[in-house]
Amino acid sequence: MRVLGIDCGGEVTGYGIVEQSTESKLLHVTSGAIKLSLRDTLAMRLSHVFSELRTIIQLHRPDVAAIEDVFYAANAKTALKLGQVRGVAMLAASICGLQVAEYAPLTIKSAVVGYGKAEKAQVQQMVARLLGLEQPPQPADVADALAIAICHLHTSATITRQRAGGRR
Questions:
Q1: Nearest to 54 by CA among 14, 102, 7, 88
Q2: DSSP 74
Q3: Antiparallel, parallel or unpaired: β 99-103 and 64-68
Q4: Which carries the bigger pLDDT value, residue 164 or residue 66?
Q5: Does the pLDDT value for residue 94 go beyond 70?
Q6: Which of 9, 79, 118, 137 could in theory staple to 113 by disulfide, Cβ–Cβ 3.0 to 4.6 A?
Q7: CATH code (residue 160)
Q8: Span 112-153, pLDDT tens digits
Q9: Which of 125, 104, 130, 128 is nearest to 116 (CA)?
Q10: Per-residue pLDDT averaged across 108-114, rounded?
Q11: Got the DSSP string for 96-155?
C-alpha cells in the first residue's frame, strides 16, 4: 500500500508518500513542502496547494491519502484558514480518486512515537528512524506528513489483522 500523508498549514503544507512492502517494511517514496506566500491572496494560495497536490498524486500514484484531523487552535481566523487548506487538500485527493482518512494529532503521535504528546523533534527523529533516512525530515511539516502516512499504514495493518482474527 502507498499512502500520501498531508500536513496542512497556512504557510507550509507538508506532504509525504510512504509505501509498505510485502515484508511490512516502510519505504520513503517522496516528501516535500508546498510553501505559500503570504503576499498572495488566500484564493491563490489554495489554488497552489490544490495544483501541487494533484501533480504529486498523478506522479506518484498513492492508493490512499491521510490527513490530520482538525485540532484546537487559539485563533479562530487561523483555524478557519487551516480548515480551508484541509478542504482543498481533501478535494484534490478525492478528485484524483483517493479515499481520504483523517487522524487526530494524538493518534498520529502515538502510532509513530508511542506517546501522544510527543514533541515535534521526537516525531522527526522517529520518522527518520522508521524510514531509514539519514537526517530527520525538514521542515517539521514534512516529518508530520510522513508521520500521518505511517500512522495510516499502521492503523490499516491493525484493522486487517483484527478482521483476519475474527474469521476463525
A1: 88
A2: S
A3: parallel
A4: 66
A5: yes
A6: 118
A7: 3.30.420.10
A8: 999 888 899 999 999 999 999 999 999 999 999 999 999 999
A9: 104
A10: 94
A11: TT-EEEEE-HHHHHHHHTS-TT--HHHHHHHHHHHHT-SS--SSHHHHHHHHHHHHHHHH
User: What amino acid positions are annotated as catalytic residues?
Assistant: 7, 68, 141
Cell numbers representing residue 131 in the block: 524510514
pLDDT at 117: 86
Question: Is the Cα dihedral 2, 148, 94, 15 positive or negative?
Answer: negative
Q: How many CB atoms lie within 10 A of CB 139?
A: 17
Q: Cell for 142?
A: 514534512
Report the distance separating Cα 66 and Cα 145, nearest Å: 9
- How far, in Å, CA of 48 to CA of 64, rounded? 21
Total domains present in the chain: 1
- For residue 68, the cross-strand partners are 103
Q: Domain of 76?
A: 2-166
Chain centroid offset of residue 145 CA: 3
**70: DSSP letter:** P
Residue with cell 505511517: 150
Strand order from edge to edge, sheet including 2-7? 26-35, 12-20, 2-7, 64-68, 99-103
User: Distance between CA 147 and CA 119 in Å, rounded?
Assistant: 13
